[in-house]
Amino acid sequence: MAGAGPRFRVWTYAAPAIVLGCSQRALRDDIERRLRGRAELTLRESGGGAVLTGPWLVSVSVVLPPEHPWVCKGLIDSYRHLGQLHVEVLKAFGVAARALPPQELPSAHEASAVSTVSWACFGGLSPWELVNAEGRKLVGLAQRRCRSGVLLVAGTLVGPVDWALLCDAMGYRQHESLLRHGTVSAQEMAGGPIGPERFAAVLTQWLERELLTSRA
Fold first, then answer.
1. In what order do the strands lie in the sheet with 57-64?
2. Would you give the end-to-end CA distance of the chain in angstroms?
3. pLDDT digits (tens, 9 = 90+) for 32-41
């Protein structure tokens, strides 16, 4: 990766799958048993909580050299540009979301219904993740850093999520209402359907403009 310029890929999903963080490896057999073949189960190398992918999610992975302006100012600031880019993309669909500044995290955690769902990626709030006016989470962010570069990852809840499937598989059925009320989809905010493929296409256009055709 050393010396390479920015690269990215935008993802959509045809079927549901649960992606566990590396610290959840020991739970895999029990989760497989509870899933009963309803979704695929995979394990990623990075940490963090479980992610439920599916037709409701659009994800992006961005690889940047360590000297890139997006990521050269430290761990927390590295989320800011990708978060704000998602704000602009969502505006194109009539969705008014905002990226959560670090200084607002304490009050946001107090108000959030998902703040106690520590096992799920969308069960908490981190700097520059996107929320609606009520603080419900819409876009999650993550990153992995090494000497040769930085991987930034974002996931947008475009449509209604099958939280019941995730909570049942993880053994926390009682958390379904917390995740449902603590998150929001772009479709819900827009008041109408938003196709994942269309959202992915617009996100791709923004990333190409900001990363591949500029020096910002």
1. 7-12, 57-64, 149-157, 137-146, 130-131, 98-99
2. 20
3. 999 999 999 9
Q: Containing H/E element for 187? A: helix 186-190
Order of strands across the sheet with 17-20?
Answer: 40-43, 17-20, 51-53
Identify the pLDDT of residue 52.
98
The pLDDT value given to residue 159: 97
Hunting for tokens 């490896």 — which residue is that? 25
Name the amino acid, one letter, at 32. Answer: E
Q: How far apart are CA 34 and CA 28, in angstroms?
A: 10
Partnered with residue 137 across adjacent β-strands are 131, 183
Bridge partners for 157 per DSSP: 57
- 184 phi and psi angles, rounded to 5 deg: -150, 145
How far is CA 159 from each of CA 81, 125, 188, rounded to the nearest angstrom? Answer: 24, 19, 7
Low-confidence winner among 41-50, 129-138, 169-178, 196-205 (lowest mean pLDDT): 41-50
pLDDT in tens, 41-72: 999 887 789 999 999 999 999 999 999 999 99
Amino acid making up residue 43: L
Record the tokens describing residue 80, joined without a space.
């800011």
